[in-house]
Design goal:
alpha/beta, two-stranded antiparallel ribbon
Length: about 200
């Protein structure tokens, strides 16, 4: 996992933990992974996420498709969308993709060299707000499976991945490109260091 790659990872549960997402809490991190979201974020929490990405230039990756509610995507989708709304992004529609391999755009840094990754029972990511620049980097059939979003100002980046299987050890073992896909996503979404040319 991430620890072996030299990254420190800390999981924070949202259930029974109201108001935990604050600017002070987020200041410890460069990149947030939002998965298995257990409740909707409050307006204050969503505003803290917005500032983390847009003002501090940090990154966020969201995952979905855990199917907690007997095939009803709405509760999970609504919870995740509270984190995405500040960026004009969302998950939309029903679960789709039955253990298929997405088609990855070989011209995008996130998906370059990525071919073998599982996608099963995901939810379509969409850009509803046109607040920044959004590119689709993977498709399942004709449906977007992954979006890369650069916020409008000199801010950070958001990746909206339409599935969750890439978080499971079985997929790290069973699909050749899952680890490299994570490396690419983290590399694209983490704060970008812009170095000036020495004069």
């Amino acid at each position: 996992g991430f620890e072996e790659q030299g990254s420190e990872v800390k999981r924070t549960l949202l259930a029974n933990n109201p108001g935990v997402v604050t600017p002070q809490f987020l200041a410890q991190y460069d990149l947030l992974l939002i998965d298995r979201i257990e409740r909707e974020l409050s307006p204050d929490e969503a505003a803290a996420l917005e500032a983390f990405v847009k003002d501090d230039g940090r990154g966020m990756i969201t995952l979905i498709g855990y199917n907690f509610d007997n095939g009803n995507p709405a509760p999970e989708r609504n919870r995740a969308n509270t984190a995405l709304a500040p960026f004009g992004l969302a998950y939309e529609g029903a679960y789709f993709g039955n253990a298929v391999i997405p088609t990855f755009d070989q011209n995008h840094p996130i998906s370059k060299g990525i071919f073998d990754v599982n996608f099963a029972g995901g939810i379509k990511p969409v850009d509803v707000g046109n607040q920044g620049e959004t590119t689709s980097f993977a498709k399942v059939a004709m449906t977007d499976a992954g979006l890369a979003h650069q916020t409008a100002m000199a801010g950070g980046r958001v990746i909206v991945w339409g599935d969750e299987w890439i978080t499971f050890d079985s997929d790290w073992q069973g699909y050749a490109d899952v680890q490299q896909f994570w490396v690419n996503m983290v590399g694209w979404a983490k704060p970008q260091d812009f170095c000036g040319v020495p004069q």
